[in-house]
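Chapter review. Work through the record for ABC transporter ATP-binding protein before attempting the end-of-chapter questions.
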Amino acid sequence: MEVEAGEFFGILGPNGAGKTTTLEIIEGLRQADAGQVRLFGSSPWPRNSAVLPRIGVQLQASSFFERLTAREQIRTFASLYGVGPKKADEMLDVVGLSDKADTRAEKLSGGQMQRLSIACALVHDPELVFLDEPTAALDPQARRNLWDLLRAINTQGRTIVLTTHYMDEAEILCDRVAIMDRGKILQSGPPAELVRGLDAATHIAIETGVLPVEEARRMFDGTVEVDDDGVSLTFVTRTPAPVLATLAERNALRGLSVRGATLEDVFLNLTGREYRA
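C-alpha cells for ABC transporter ATP-binding protein:
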C-alpha cells in the first residue's frame, strides 16, 4: 500500500480486518510483526521523534481531560508541539467550535467531540493526517458537516488517510481506497474504477401496479429478471437501455429509480456477506 502526497486515501474492511492495527503501525504506536513501513522515507518504529510533528492522529476512541473546556483542551494539545494559544483558538474556528470554546468537553455533542478531536490532530499543521472512523455514530447532519471539513483540509494540501465503514463516505471523499480483510489488501484503486470493474447488473424499479408482473416478464421474454415486492416492480439487467426504452414506450415510468453497482457491492463481493462481530 502506498499513499501519495496530497491524496485522500481510504482503508475499508469488515470488523477485525486490520484497519486500526495498520494505522497504529504506520503511526508508530505499534511494532509490526513483519514487513516494512516507511513514513516520509523513515521507519516510524521505534517511535521516531523526527516524523511525529509532521503527522496528525485522530484515534478511533478519543479521550479528553475532565473539566477542561474546548479552548483549554486544544491549547493543551497545541502546547505539546510548541504552538501558541492564538493558533489553537483559530483552529476552533476552523472546525466550527468557536461558540463552544468555553464549554467543557463532556458537555459537547458527539459531532462536536469529533470535530474537537480533529482540531487537536490538526493544531500543529501536520502534513499527513490519520483519521480512524471519524464519523462513527454521528447523525447525518454531523457527518455531512464533517465531510465538508475534511474536503477543506485536503484542499489545503494535506494528505489524509481515513478508515471508515461507510461506503458512501469513501466514494464521495477518497481519491483511492484499499479494501482489506484478514490483514491483506484485496483490491485498491479509485472508487469509480473499482465499481466499473465489478460488471454488476443494473436494478431498474418502478412503482408496483404500473404493470402486472406476468406482463412485465413477457415483455422481455425471460431475458430480464423481474421481481415485485409489493412496493416496487424491479427489473435486473446488464443492458438497461432497452429496458428503459420499452418502459417509456408503455408510459410505465412512474416511481422510476435506477441503481447501478456501488462501492458497497465491490466490498461485499471481495469480503463476503457473512456477519462479522
